[in-house]
Amino acid sequence: MCGQSIDYNAIAGTKWSYTYDHIHAIAKDGHVRGEGRPAHRSCNARRGNNEVPKTATSSLER
Question: Is residue 13 one of the residues assigned to a domain?
Answer without folding.
Answer: no
